[in-house]
Amino acid sequence: MSVMQLIGVGFGAVLTPTGIFLMLIGVAVGIVFGALPGLSATMAIALFLPVTYAMASTDAMTLLMALFIGAISGGLISAILLHIPGTPSSVATCFDGHPLVRKGQAAKALGIGVVFSFLGTIFSTVLLMFIAPQIARVAINFGNFEFFSIAMFSLTMIATLSSGNMIKGIMAGVIGFMFSTVGTDAIEATGRFTFNNTSLKGGFDMLAVMVGLFAVGEIIAAAETSHHQDGEVMTQPSMKGIKGFGFSMAEFTGQLVNAVRSALIGMGIGILPGIGGGTSNMLAYTVAKNSDKHPEEFGQGRIDGIVASETANNATIGGAMVPLLTLGIPGDTTTAMLLGALTLHGLTPGPLLFQNQAEIVYGIFAAMLLASVIMLFMEFFGLRVFVKLLSIPKYILLPCVFVLCTIGAYALKNNMSQVIACLLFGAIGFAFKKFEIPSTPFILGFILGPLAEVNYRRGMMRTNGSFLPFLQSPISLVFLMVAVVVIVLSAIKPLRDKKKAAR
Q1: Cβ-count burial of 25 within 10 angstroms (0-12 exposed, 13-18 middle, 19+ buried)?
Q2: What pairs with residue 184 in β-bridges?
Q3: Is the pLDDT of residue 91 over 70?
Q4: Handedness of CA 130, 136, 138, 142 (dihedral sign)
Q5: What region does 183 belong to: left with phi over 0, alpha with psi -120 to 50, or beta?
Q6: Is residue 88 a contact partner of residue 78, using CB atoms and an 8 Å limit?
Q7: Which pLDDT tens digit goes with each residue over 30-66?
Q8: What is the DSSP letter of 332?
Q9: Helix or strand (DSSP H, E) at 465
Q10: Is there a contact between 455 and 147 (Cβ–Cβ < 8 Å)?
C-alpha cells in the first residue's frame, strides 16, 4: 500500500467511538499531569500502562499517545501563569511567558503557547509519516564522537544565555554539571559523591531539580516579602475584547519563520536519543534570541520566546518517535515507557514494523494528529479558566503549589529523598535569585553535562586516548567548529559593545 492509503487505514482504525473516547480522556489527563508541578508525561503513561493490558494494540497506543501529547503541551500552563515549568520541556516558556502575565497579557501568552504547541506537533507528525525510515538511517550513524560534539555545541549556549554577566552564567552551568555527577558512574558503576548514602546512588532526578529550582525557589522568594505583600493578587487581565486565542493574525504570520526554525530544531533534537525536549526548548529559544534584531528584549515579555519554546518541545514528540519506531531506541524516559507498551502488546519496533504491522504504526500517527486537534480545542476553551487562577491570592495559591510540588517529588521514587532534593534545589534557586545568577545555564549544565562526559569517555576508550577521531568525523567536526565560533563571538561581543558605547 502507498503512504496515503496507509494514512487512510490509520485514521479508520482510530476514528471509532472507543478511540475518540480514549483520546478525550488521555488528552485531558495529560494536560493535568503536565500543568501540575512535579508530575510529568512519564508518570501519566506509567500510571495508565496497566489500564491498557486488556486493550487492543491500536486502542492502547491511542490512549498513551494522547497522554504524551496532552502532558507536553500542558506544561505551558503553569510555566506561563506561575513561572513554574510543569515539565522539563517548558523551562524556556517561563522566560517570556510570565513577564507577559505581569503585563496583564496572560490570555495572549497562553493563546500563543497553545497554538504553536499544536503546530509543532502537527509539523513533526506529518514529517514523521513520510520520512521516518529515511531519517532513521542517518540518525543510526551518530556515535560517541557526534553526541559529544552536539553536547559541547549545546553547552556553548550557556554563553549566549548569560547576557549581562557571563561569569555568573558559566558558574551556574558548572554548578549544574557538578550536581549531575552525583550518583553511580554510568561507565564504571562506582558511586560518586554519594557519601555512602544509598538515596544518592541514583543521583538527582531531573524533575526534582527543576521543580525545586523554579517552583520552591519562587515560593521561598515570595514568602520573604510576604509581610508587605499580604493578599497580593497578580494583575488579572480582562477577557473583554479578547477574540479567539488572544493574538492578531499579523502577530501569527510574523512568527512563522521562528516557528518553522524551532520545529526543525525540535524535530532534530527528538531524533537524537538521550537529549529530548528539555534541551530542544532552550536551544530553540537561544537561536530565536540570537537571530532577533533586539535580543535584549527577550525575557521581558516577547511572544517570540514562547513560540520558539513551545513549537520546539512539541516537535520533539514526532522526532522522538523516529528512533523508537524505526530502530527500537527510546530517546528518553517517556519513549522508554512507550517502548515497553509496544513490547507488551506484541509489537517489535524496527524496520520490519513498518512492513508487517504498518496499519498499527499509521494508527499511532493518526492518533497523534487527532489528539493534537483535541488538545487545541480543550486548551482553547480552558483559556478563561486558566486565567482565573490569577485571581487567587498568593497566600492561598503558593502553599497549594508547594504541597503539589512535595507530593510530585515524593511520587518520583516513593521516598523522602526526592522531597529533600526538591527542597535543596529550592534553596539553591532562591540563592540564585538573591545573587542574580541565571538558572537556565544551571539546567543546561545538569542535562547536557552527563551526555558530554559519558560520550567523551567512551570515545576516548574506543580510540585508546586519542582525541583525533573526534575531529575526523565530519559531523563531529562541524559541531565542534560551530561551538568554537559561538564561544569566540560571545567573548568579543562585550568588547564591541564597549567600543560602540565609547563612540
Answers
A1: middle
A2: 191
A3: yes
A4: positive
A5: left
A6: no
A7: 888 888 776 778 778 877 887 888 888 889 999 999 9
A8: S
A9: none
A10: yes
Q: What is d(CA 275, CA 447) in angstroms, rounded to the nearest whole number?
A: 8
Q: C-alpha grid cell for residue 474?
A: 565530519
* CB of 14 closer than 8 Å to CB of 363: yes
pTM of the entire predicted model: 0.74
**Count: domains in the chain:** 1
Place of cell 520490519: 352
d(CA 13, CA 363): 6
What pLDDT, on the 0 to 100 scale, is given for residue 243? 64
Distance of CA 300 to the CA centre of its chain: 21
* Grid cell of 439 as nine digits: 538558572
Residue 192 pairs in a beta bridge with 183
Q: What is the pLDDT of residues 252-308, one digit of tens each?
A: 998 999 999 999 998 888 877 656 666 788 888 888 988 888 888 888 888 999 999
For residue 395, the tally of other CB atoms under 10 A from its CB is 15
Residue 406 CA to residue 37 CA, distance in Å, equals: 9
Instruction: Write the pLDDT tens digit of every residue in 442-469.
Output: 877 887 788 889 989 999 999 988 899 8
Whole domain around residue 270: which residue ranges?
A: 3-502
Torsion angles phi and psi, residue 191, rounded to 5: -75, 140
Alpha helix (H) ranges present in 140-255? Answer: 144-155, 157-160, 166-180, 206-210, 217-224, 249-253
307-352 pLDDT tens trace: 999 999 889 888 888 778 876 766 666 777 788 788 888 887 776 7
d(CA 299, CA 428): 21
pLDDT above 80 (res 383)? no
The 3-class secondary structure across 30-98, one letter per residue, is: HHHHHHCCCCCHHHHHHHHCHHHCCCCHHHHHHHHHHHHHHHHHHHHHHHHHHCCCCCHHHCCHHHHHH
Cα atoms in the Cβ-side hemisphere of radius 13 Å centred on 100 = 28
CA distance 182 to 165: 27
Read off the DSSP letter of residue 56.
-
- Asked if 112 contacts 309 with a C-beta cutoff of 8 angstroms, the reply is no
Of 452, 440, 480, 419, residue with least CA distance to 175 = 440
Distances (CA, A) of 126 to 7, 119, 284: 10, 11, 20
Let me know: does 180 contact 389? Beta carbons within 8 Å: no
Residue 47: count other Cβ atoms within 10 Å of its Cβ: 14
Q: Which residue has the cell 506561563?
A: 80
Per mean pLDDT, which range of 203-207, 234-238, 293-297 is the poorest? 234-238
**Contact status, residue 213 vs residue 172, Cβ threshold 8 Å:** no
The Cα–Cα gap between 32 and 77 comes to 10
Angle at 58 between CA 57 and CA 62, to 5 degrees: 120
